[in-house]
Specification:
binds flavin mononucleotide; alpha+beta; NADH Oxidase; 6-stranded antiparallel sheet; 230 residues
Length: 230
């Protein structure tokens, strides 16, 4: 199979990436998601089985995973996502107002727009849930619950990548969490939604490391110090 071509991959084939390559090239994939090619349920389950091996507090497994492949439900979930994007454009969350300084910001915005406009075409969406509500939780409890599910979600994304599929971590619909809960019959008083993840084969499998702020800017030894250049 030519490098970077996954058209011939069957659902049990793996790319055989070494661990460092997997960790540095698992990207937020949007424009290169193949919306035409079906994703078998077995493949989603295989990646979820791997994800369930992630660490979680007291091994309580405080998660639930709603995998969506019903086209009508995907369409409705994508509508909620688009409406949440429109909310963000009208009233950007404070934390993201400075993002225009980040290298590649324009491309990122374009790619995010593309995903929003095409999410309804995704063959599968995944909605990971934390078993618990965090509104009244202190830092210990909320950190423990978030960190009991987030590593598993990332493992899921790594497992997809190794099989020639991709996803993008998205949280934008969470401003409309209740609507999504209503759509999917999620007991909203018990579960917290983590995000919404398109799942699709990727067009090609060659992905590269991305820009990040250099380590010297973000690491200090022994005591906190401002990063070099900050
Ligand atoms: C917590 C979190 C929330 C994100 N939310 C969205 C989102 O709502 N929509 C989107 O298109 N991408 C979203 N992303 C993807 C980021 O934009 C992406 O990870 C970032 O630009 C770095 O790109 P890379 O993952 O390919 O390195 C999110 C990522 C994270 C970790």
């Amino acid at each position: 199979m030519p490098a970077g071509d996954n058209r011939a991959m069957d659902s049990t084939r793996k790319l055989g990436l070494d661990a460092d390559t997997l960790l540095t090239t698992t990207r937020a994939v949007r424009r290169r998601l193949d919306f035409e090619r079906p994703v078998p349920r077995d493949l989603v389950d295989a990646c979820l089985e791997l994800a369930l091996q992630a660490p979680n507090g007291s091994n309580l497994n405080p998660w639930h995973w709603v995998a969506i492949d019903d086209p009508g439900t995907i369409e409705a979930a994508a509508r909620i996502y688009r409406e949440a994007i429109a909310d963000q454009i009208a009233r950007p969350a404070h934390a993201f107002r400075d993002a225009s300084r980040v290298p590649g910001h324009e491309r990122l915005m374009e790619s995010s727009r593309y995903l929003a406009e095409n999410l309804h075409r995704a063959p599968v969406l995944l909605l990971p849930l934390i078993d618990g509500r965090l509104e009244d939780a202190d830092l210990f409890v909320s950190a423990s619950l978030w960190a009991s599910v987030v590593p598993a979600v990332w493992s899921f994304m790594l497992a997809l990548r190794e099989r020639g599929l991709g996803s993008a971590w998205t949280t934008v619909h969470l401003t409309r969490e209740r609507e999504m809960a209503g759509l999917l019959d999620v007991p909203a008083e018990r579960y917290t939604q983590v995000g919404l993840f398109p799942v699709a084969w990727t067009r090609g499998t060659d992905f590269r490391p991305a820009w990040r702020a250099p380590l010297e800017q973000v690491r200090s030894w022994n005591v906190w110090r401002p990063g070099a250049g900050s």
